[in-house]
Fold:
Amino acid sequence: MKSNNQDSNILKISAYGALFFAVMGISWGIIANSQMIIFDGLYSFISFGLSLLSLFAYSFIQKEDQKRFQYGKDIIEPLVIIFKASAIIAMCLFAVSSSIIDLLKGGRDVALGSAAMYALIATVLCMFVYFMMKTKQGNSEFVRAEAAQWLMDTILSAAVLSGFVMALMLNQTTLSFLTPYVDPTMVLIVSLYFLKMPIRMLINNAKELLMMAPSTDIQNQVEQAVQRAKVKYNFYEDATRVTKVGKTIFIEINFVLSKETTIHNVDELDVLREELDTELHIEGYNKWFTLSFTNDRKWAF
Structure:
């Protein structure tokens, strides 16, 4: 329960932090006439909405409702993260198109000193929030996704800061005519770079929705435990299925018995079930464990 409350509090901090950066970024961007800062503010505004969505979904998942959700509510987690990733991808693609249009129009004149000051403040504050979330996060995919968003915002702000400092230096040289192109160029580069992380989030959580196999580490742990039991009790064959949805790992093991199998009654089967349940404990995850036995392999496969 303590871990659940901590995750909920972290999500609230993330939401309030995103709202603060949204207001600051959009306002400062309009004053400084910087598309890059406005993009940063819009990203924070979208993050605020997505953080509220995560908080609502997280709270909903924590409320037990076994009558309606007999297999749990974990499927909601990848659904929400896919929506979040899709929203960030859409925003990045919009920013790419806007920056290209600005470049074709001859760039954008920006109040460089003001813009650089914003970027410095944003970089420091975003980094602080990210490390706070990183050190306190539990095993919630929601919190991990929020931390990933703040990491992206930190990288964005640092890139903006570097770009504006370079523009200030460039403005003092004979190449000052290139200064208007700095802001839209940064938007273009950062937007394209940002696409990588939400695309990865989208793919990983789509695999969970499709109930595909989990990470190799989880599969290996399950397979090793199954093979040890198979050898120890002389089972003829096994069929093992594993998938991960949110914080729950679903494990189904079917053993096909043979004449040499050393288990002969239900009590001994339950002893094995207890052994496997202990061996298959995976830190940080809930487990849905089903173990079946049959003499006919058609019921296993």
In short: The chain has a mean pLDDT of 84. Residues 67 and 73 are 12 Å apart (CA to CA). The radius of gyration is 26 Å. The chain is about 65% helix and 10% strand.
